[in-house]
Every structure is written in C-alpha cells, then in structure tokens.
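task queued by scheduler; priority normal; single chain, no ligands, no partner chains; default sampling; output format set to structure tokens
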Amino acid sequence: MEFSLFVQGHPKRGGARSPYWEHQCLMDDLELIRTADQHNWKYVWVSEHHFLEDYSHTSASEVFMAYAFAQTSQIHLGSGIFNLNPIVNHPIKLAERVAMLDHMSRGRFEFGTGRGAGSHEIGGFGLDPNETKANWDEVVWEFRKMWGSPAYSHPDGTAFQTPEEGTHGSFNILPKPYVHTHPAMWVAAGNTPTYEKAARHGLGVLGFNVSAIYDMAEHVEAYKKAVPSAEPVGDYVNDNVMITNGVVCLEDGEKARQVAAETLQISYLQSLVFKYHDTFPRPEGVPEWPTLMPEPSREMIDDQIKAGFFLCGDPDEVLQQTQAYQDIGCDQVAFGMPIQLPMEYALETIRLFGDHVIPKFDTDPKHRSTRFREAAGGPLELAGPDPLYEVP
C-alpha cells in the first residue's frame, strides 16, 4: 500500500481574498511536497478548481506541478483532477500539457481526470451539469489516439471536433509522452457504480471521499471485482484505488489529539466540501451553508478516530490505525494537509509518518503505477537515440 498527499492551495481561513495568504498557502504546499519527497511518500495529488474562494486557489495546477517537479527527485505528482469538459480544458491542450509534464518530470506525472464537481464551478464556464458525463465519456477515449498517432482527427465529435486535415496536412499532437507509452490514467469517483466504471475502463480511482474508511470497503471490492475484465481507454490497465483521509502524527499522541481539536477545523472543511461540491449526497446532520457543523471537542476526536474518519496519535498509534486501509484492499491512501494545521505540525506529521509508518506498508521501491506503465512499454529511461527514427 502506497501513500500520498493531496494539496489544493487551501487559503488560511479569512484570508481567501488576500494575495499574501494566496501566495503563502502555495509556498506552504511546496514545502510539504519537498519534505514528502525526502521521507518515503510516493505521490502528491494537486487539485484544479475555479471560483472557490474559501476552498482552493490552484486553478492552473499544471504550472504548480511543473515548478514542484523541478524541486523534487522521486515523488510523482498527479492532476487531481484535470477537468475533461472541453469548454474548461480543450482535450488537445490537455494531451499536450500531460505530455509536457511527463517530459519535464521524466515519467513522474500521473494523469487524473474528472467531470468537475459543483454547480458554482461548472456554472462559471456556462456548462450544463447534464453535459459533463457525456463530455467525459467522449473525451477520455481520445487521448490514446492523440498520443499514438501522427495524424489525429475527431471530425464527428459532439463535445469537440478536430478536422482530418488543415492547411499543411494532418494534425500531429505534440509532444508525444516520455518514452514508450503514456502516464498512468485515473478518474475521480465517489460511489460504487463509478468505481465499477473506472475499473471497466482500466483507470485508477481517485476516491476523494468524505466517508469513514469502513464505508469504503464495498467501493474497493466492486472495483477489484470488475478490473480483471477491463477494456482500457489507454495502452494499459492502471489497477489502482486511492482513498483519502486526514492525519496528525506527532511524537506526543495526546498533543496530536489536542492539536486536532484546537486547530484543524475539521467540520469547517467538511462544511466547505458540501458548500462547493453540491452534487455530493448530503449526509444527515450536515446543515446548509452558511450554517457550519460544530467543531469536534477533544473528547470527540477519539470517537472520530475509532469510527475511521481520521488518523491521529503518535507513530505507533497511527501505524495501528492505518492497518484498516490495508484490510479493505485499497492501493493508496492520500492525506489532505494542511487543513489549518500549523506548518510545524504538518511537517512533523509528514516526517514521522514517512519514516515510521510508510516503510511498514510500502516495501516496493518502485511506484505501482510505474510498474504497470513499464509492463506496457519498457523502462522509463532514455538510453540513447531511438533506433526506429533517423535524424535528418
């Protein structure tokens, strides 16, 4: 089982309209990534959101990821997600961006896709929410063609069209991905049917869930049951399930619980999730915005840990809590930080979890997604000129 961070340029509470806090939250996310790269973490997922003042300011995540790749050496970064609606991201531009990130990282980019979530975000681009499913279904099959052929066309598309020829002949989408085949492909999913669909398409799942870990077992089981019969949208099957949660891991377990109760603002974040992602089912007890859910007390933190909503404690305690994720069969766990967590505690969490917990669960030095990619196309390295091509 592998581990990742999830960053989204989440502004300090009350600082959403401050250029200072915008800048600081992005710099803090970069510091988390640099630290994770040195302490056994395998992946970072970077969101793409638009118009979400209090929630996420990473509207151009490809810029952020390119900069982060230059400051790291081992960790993979992925789009969590790139929106596949052509009015937001034209598919040809996405194919080009993915290939560029793949080259700049030498094969460390992960291509996460999705439909977009929330009426406010979709509405800002004039999108009809009823169009997003059909758009994704059409677009996701086109990337393999764009990367695999020197002559791409899509003349009869509904979501977008590309003619068969232009002024100077056919259209060659450039550059092609970094050596042999394309990056691993993923899709965001939130319910059992979507997990099954991802498996049938050969896509890894980005489970940006708001449920307790024990409630995710049926989703993972459905995926694993369906994936052996996949007809992949890409060159290979990326048999991977990632699910999300939060963690505070400090040397002092009681201090970790106090920090969680006093600084994390767990319920505030959940309130924002249901404010902006209003397509998510609203659990009983979650009020309509702007009414906020009450923040948990110190006593309630233990109940949340026991229920599987949160990991918290010293390294040994968090190690035991992490076992529940392996027990349900997921392949990767992503932790969203910081959620108003002071940087000193966020960095301590990354170091302690990376040094003491991750090695107990992740014993493979190679990324799982890289193994699938290499099995489909060979080692991810450029050993010299490609013998299939002659330089004119």
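post-processing summary
- The chain has one domain: 2-377.
- The chain has 14 helices and eleven strands.
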